[in-house]
Design goal:
Number of helices: 18
Distance between the termini: 64 Å
Helix content: 40-55%
Structural class: alpha/beta
Number of domains: 3
CATH architecture of the largest domain: 3-Layer(aba) Sandwich
Shape: elongated
CATH topology of the largest domain: Rossmann fold
């Protein structure tokens, strides 16, 4: 089989590379000439564990190709995946202009039956708009040609995307014909041999499944953060509460870790888009509105702890920040809580020295030279009035507390991810604040 993947962002590049890994002929297409040139030379536009090696390997084996021309690569393609960006508009709705533009280009150039698949996260009803866009271009050409539109949402976790794609929990495909189902089943056959389930459904249901999944996970996170805030007030320990409820199989122990809010490219955008879709259809998503409100507030919780401790006098104070990306194992800074916290500190006259294993280059695009970028985690600590744990990278979990104490001006830690033990911190002479535990009692 041959497929084309339009868009070499996070979803498109992982999708194309993983299909090539199982022996499928793949062409990844992007209008960004520099990005394509870099990919042809093994230079990645994103950080994702294992991706660079896989791209280089499959490129060398001749299964993975990169191009800026969709027109030149549609011939003999069985499937065209649309994996371009759907950035949120000011009102929260998903902007589909890039999706529709690709659909039109397919219609203007395709000459044989093809399955056009939306891989980007798109609102319910998008497949219909894609079909109309393809058909309108075919009509302009006076060409009668059958094609199908399908929805194949991705469920990739940044930092574990390769594993998620090659060993999926489930593969969801929305189709409108038996022919399209047969093509998509053949495409995913290498994954089905290992027993991974494929679920076929109608297209609108597949489109909704993606949003519903991310909205549910976002809801669990905001619920747990709300509980954590109440735990602090009531004198309960949210870590123990988490263990207590996580042992219930109806609830489970995933996505119930308290923290400083979710970020990234998926949850914030998808929650907003689902709220907007509902509003456009005269329905109010009351729970999701609360989920978004809690998350926005949670990103400021750590700052409020800092501001209270220093009695609102942060001018000239130096804060070490460990972690900038919205989660570990990625350089993604989109909607990262670190940006909210750092901007609030800077506004109060504080100075910030930050370290992140992979995200500092991306962080510079948002923060510029307003902060100092440390060469390692210990350099960030030198003469710091306090340390902030923002992202729970593994290397931050077992630091040398003796060295930390010597480097810092004050032995003070604000832990936004609850990665340290309260008793251990006290035994090492640190004042310690975290989420969901009243450490001052």
């Amino acid at each position: 089989m041959k497929i084309v993947v339009i868009g070499t962002g996070y979803v498109g590049l992982v999708t194309g590379t993983c299909f090539a890994e199982v022996g499928i002929d793949v062409v990844c297409i992007d209008v960004d000439h520099k990005k394509i040139e870099n990919l042809q030379n093994g230079i990645m536009p994103i950080y994702e564990p294992g991706l660079e090696e896989m791209v280089i390997r499959n490129t060398e084996k001749g299964r993975l190709h990169f191009s800026t021309s969709l027109k030149d690569n549609l011939a003999d393609a069985d499937v065209a995946f649309i994996a371009v960006g759907t950035p949120p508009g000011e009102d929260g709705s998903a902007d589909l202009k890039y999706v529709i533009a690709v659909a039109k280009e397919i219609g203007a150039n395709v000459n044989d039956y093809i399955v056009v698949v939306t891989k980007s996260t798109v609102p319910v009803g998008t497949a219909l708009k894609v079909r109309e866009a393809v058909q309108s271009e075919l009509s302009i050409r006076g060409k009668e040609l059958s094609f199908d539109v399908a929805s194949n949402p991705e469920f990739l976790k940044e930092g574990a995307a390769i594993e998620d794609f090659l060993k999926p929990d489930r593969i969801v495909v929305g189709v409108e014909s038996k022919k399209a189902e047969d093509v998509m089943r053949k495409l995913y056959k290498p994954f089905l041999l290992n027993g991974h389930p494929i679920i076929f459904m109608d297209v609108p249901s597949a489109e909704m499944t993606k949003y519903a999944a991310n909205a549910m996970l976002a809801t669990k996170i905001s619920f747990m953060n709300d509980i954590a805030n109440l735990c602090e007030i009531m004198g309960a320990d949210v870590n123990l509460v988490r263990k207590g409820i996580g042992s219930d199989p109806r609830i489970g122990n995933r996505f119930i870790y308290p923290g400083i809010g979710y970020g990234g490219s998926c949850f914030p955008k998808d929650v907003k888009a689902l709220i907007k879709t509902a509003a456009e259809n005269a329905y109010n998503m009351r729970i999701l509105n609360a989920v978004e409100e809690v998350n926005n507030d949670q990103k400021s919780v750590l700052f409020h702890k800092i501001n209270t401790h220093f009695q609102s006098d942060l001018n000239g104070k130096v804060f070490a920040v460990w972690g900038l990306s919205f989660k570990p194992k990625t350089d993604d800074m989109r909607e990262a809580p670190s940006l909210v916290i750092i901007e609030k500190l800077l506004k109060m006259g504080a100075k910030v020295k930050a370290y992140d294993p992979v995200a500092m280059h991306e962080a510079q695009k948002d923060l510029g030279d307003k902060i100092h970028y440390a060469t390692d985690m210990n350099e960030a600590l030198i003469d710091a009035d306090a340390l902030l744990i923002i992202t729970e990278w593994p290397e931050f979990r077992t630091p040398n507390f003796e060295v930390m104490g010597r480097l810092m001006k004050n032995k003070l830690v604000f832990d936004g991810r609850n990665i340290y033990d309260l008793t251990e911190m006290k035994d090492n002479g640190f004042d310690y604040y975290c989420i969901g535990i009243n450490t001052l009692k």
